[in-house]
Amino acid sequence: MKLKSLLAYLALILGSQQATLAADLQPTADQTPSNLASSAASLTRATGVNPKIYGKTIGNWGHAWWEWAFNIPKANNPLFQNGAMDCSVGQKGKVWFLAGNFGETSSRSCTIPQGKALFFPIYNSVWWTPAPGTEIGCKDETDCRQAVNASILSMQTYTCRINGEACIWHYPIVRAQSENLPFKMNADSILVTEYEEIPVTRETSISDGYWVMLPPLPVGNHRIRFTAKATDFALDVTYKLSVQ
Question: Where does the signal sequence lie (predicted)?
Answer without folding.
Answer: 1-22
